[in-house]
Amino acid sequence: MLYHRVLITGANGLLGQALVARMSPLPDYDVLATARDERLRLPGASCGYAPLDITDPDAVEAIFENFAPSVVVNCAAMTQVDDCEHDRERCRRVNAEAVETLADACRHTGARLIQLSTDFVFDGSEGPYDEDDRPAPVNYYGEAKLAGENAARRAGIDKWAVARTVLVYGTAEGEARSNILLWLLDELQAGQRVQIVTDQIRTPTYVVDLAAGIEKMVRHEATGVYHLAGRELLSVYEFAQTVAEVYGLDETLIEPTDRTEFTQTAERPLVTGLVTLKAETEISYRPRDLGDALRHLAPRLPIADV
Fold first, then answer.
1. Percentage of the chain modeled with pLDDT above 70
2. Nearest-10 crossing angle of helices 207-219, 290-297
3. Do the domain assignments include residue 186?
4. Is residue 266 part of a domain?
5. DSSP state at residue 80
6. Is position 160 within any domain?
7. Can you give the pTM of this predicted structure?
8. Element (H or E) spanning 210, and its range?
9. What is the pLDDT along the chain (306 residues), one digit of tens a residue?
10. Residue 305, number of CB atoms within 10 A of its CB
11. What CATH number is given to the structural domain containing 64?
């Protein structure tokens, strides 16, 4: 394969850290991790780091001039769905306009762009979805991410790719934001009852598998849209039950409910989930089963031996 200089944005987030951990030790890549923070939160990473605000065109231009990436993986995003509904200007600036800036820089330098996206580009009426299904977002977060997908194409023919994913879970160092798995563990281990919806269906994605899929997209110089997600299509309630079962926690603390019991600013699609056959066939994407993924993650979690 070709040697790649890989620029990773959003490197201090859940996916960004997993991707740095996956790619930086490999001899095929020279990785520069970037995020808004002054330092990389992942200890022992064998890569360079530079602070970067992707909404600042001058800063993006400087990074491209100094590092000269051959591939950019944009993990930076505003992902809090209700916050995106409240602050649409910031959401669009981060999730769409900044992608235009990155794509334009890629076009001018010949670099490839891989843009991360979401199942929320779909309306949830006919899931699970494959790459040929027509997007129809039901909230502003989905609209902005879809605009970001379209902006990625500005990188040029055969120079862009989109990786959509779903309900990502895992661990990260020093990350301020939690994710559904960590929240569940905190609540259940504290003996707290949790209400979990039965009417939102997803294909939950282990962040380590997602990072492996993105590395394969880089390795294969993939172009176009790819779905990278977990194997099982299940409700968020079923996901929570599996977590409790695998980690030996009290399943009776998990109470089934539906979306009508919650007041949320942004509408959520009901049945999304992503079909990963294209990625499995073309780039050998191999996600773990949920139980296997949870057991693989167990040593990194503050729980009893599993």
1. 97
2. 100
3. no
4. no
5. -
6. yes
7. 0.97
8. helix 207-219
9. 568 999 999 999 999 999 999 999 999 999 999 999 999 999 889 999 999 999 999 999 999 999 999 999 999 999 999 999 999 999 999 999 999 999 999 999 999 999 999 999 999 999 999 999 999 999 999 999 999 999 999 999 999 999 999 999 999 998 656 899 999 999 999 999 999 999 999 999 999 999 999 999 999 999 999 999 999 999 999 999 999 999 999 999 999 999 888 888 999 999 999 999 999 999 999 999 999 999 999 999 987 555
10. 6
11. 3.40.50.720
Q: Is 141 a catalytic residue?
A: yes
Residue 285's domain spans which residues?
4-169+201-233+272-291
CB 138 within 8 A of CB 123: yes
Q: Do 8 and 75 touch, CB atoms closer than 8 A?
A: yes
User: What crossing angle do the helices spanning 180-189 and 236-246 adopt, rounded to 10°?
Assistant: 60
Location of structure tokens 């235009």: 100
Catalytic residue among 49, 129, 140, 141: 141
Q: Is 177 exposed, middle or buried (0-12, 13-18, 19+ CB in 10 A)?
A: exposed
- Cα gap 31→18, rounded to integer Å: 13
240: which residues sit within 8 A by CB, 6+ positions away? Answer: 180, 184, 194, 196, 254
Contact between 279 and 226 (Cβ < 8 Å) = yes
Structurally, how many domains does the chain consist of?
1
Does any domain span residue 305? no
